[in-house]
Amino acid sequence: MNDRAIPLLDVSAQNGPLSEPIREAILRVVASGHFILGEEVAAFEAEVAHYLGVKHAIGVSSGTDALLVALMALDVRHGDEVITTPFSFFATAGCIARLGATPVFVDIDAETFNIDVDQVQAAITPKTRAVIPVHLFGQAADLGALTRICKERGLPMIEDAAQSLGATFEHGGVQRRVGTVGALGCYSFFPSKNLGCFGDGGLVTTDDADIAKRLRMLRAHGSEPKYYHHVIGGNFRLDAIQAAVLRVKLPHLDRWTEARRLNAAHYDRMFGAAALPQTRLRTPRRVHAGHGYNQYTISTNARDGLREYLKSKQIGSEVYYPLPLHLQPCFEYLGQRKGSFPRSERAAAEVLSLPIYSELGEAAQRRVADAVLDYLRAV
């Protein structure tokens, strides 16, 4: 075991046991001759809508396109502002800018890495068109407070749930699925996600029938019926083969998510027993029991050295994300500088995500934890 590499994620370990039903599903699509949308996509949309507890689920071409088409459905355009976090994958803000709107960043909560709700209220202006919280690493943002703010100010909320399909939280005394509270929820099926397909894929959810109709038009170049274009949309359609793969995998998602939670609890115990100072090692704060742990992300002031040490031990890790969005060269025009969002900048300098996939195994997990602790005790 000690001679084997431990990857950050092993998609083969998850897909392998399902290889036969996945093969049958793909061959079913091949035999049908229907590769774009069609019955396979419609069936997946119905199944995932039931799983999430929403009225409408619209399959799209990627998590990025889910965000883009959600903004388009709300008619976000040049001159509008959309409030979001600078500590996220690029698509969160990139899709806002692609429509000519302005990403308005507010800093994150230092413990959860999610958007600081207290700063959202102050960032709202007459130009604000929407708010996009990101449920980073699989943990829900403070949706209760965000819902109140958005309702009071008459603003739609788009939940960036790309990393959190399967995660839950308590809302109004009821357990809800992440991504089902806002006007729209956006998900990604990139292979590294908790529910991943065999390429790119995404989903947009809503309980609003009019928004759902607009989303379906927008994903097919704004046409309804075919070749009659009411709005300018794009080619945001989900492939039938990806939908077929996702249909096989969806029934296993809760089991996989629970395995990730158990792995996280094991890490918490192992790292907690070491009693290192928080500057040396801080484990993820679990605010919601339903955290989906798409990543298990620690923080340490020795991050870069630790990552190199893990690499020398053939242990995978990743930095999500090394440069906050407000410091990206393409967003220089927004006028933000280093120091504008200190919590996001500190997170970018200290976070490191460790292997946590559901098939990891106790021995491999112990090896990861021992390597982390060996290094941090020595430096």
Account of the 3D structure:
The chain has helices spanning 11-15, 19-32, 38-52, 63-73, 91-98, 117-123, 143-153, 209-218, 240-249, 253-274, 303-312, 342-350, 362-378, and strands at residues 56-60, 81-84, 102-105, 128-131, 158-160, 168-171, 174-177, 184-188, 202-206, 296-299, 351-354. Helix 5 links the parallel strand 2 (81-84) and strand 3 (102-105). It contains 13 helices and 11 strands. Helix 3 runs parallel beside helix 9 (240-249) and helix 10 (253-274) runs parallel beside helix 13. The strands form 4 sheets. Strands 1-9-8-5 form a 4-stranded mixed β-sheet. The protein has 2 domains: 12-251, Aspartate Aminotransferase, domain 2 (3-Layer(aba) Sandwich), CATH 3.40.640.10; 252-378, Aspartate Aminotransferase, domain 1. It is α/β, with parallel strands linked by helices and 379 residues long.
Structural key phrases:
single chain, alpha/beta, Aspartate Aminotransferase, domain 2, Aspartate Aminotransferase, domain 1, four-stranded mixed sheet, three-stranded parallel sheet, 13 helices, globular
- CATH level-four homologous superfamily name of the largest domain: Type I PLP-dependent aspartate aminotransferase-like (Major domain)
What is the averaged pLDDT score? 96
Strand order of the largest sheet: 1-9-8-5
Global morphology: globular
> Total number of helical segments?
13
CATH architecture of the largest domain: 3-Layer(aba) Sandwich
Order of helices and strands: HHHEHEHEHEHEEEEEHHHEHHEH
Largest β-sheet summary: 4 strands, mixed
State which percent range the strand residues make up: 5-15%
> Can you tell me the CATH topology of the largest domain?
Aspartate Aminotransferase, domain 2
Count of folded domains = 2
Number of strands: 11
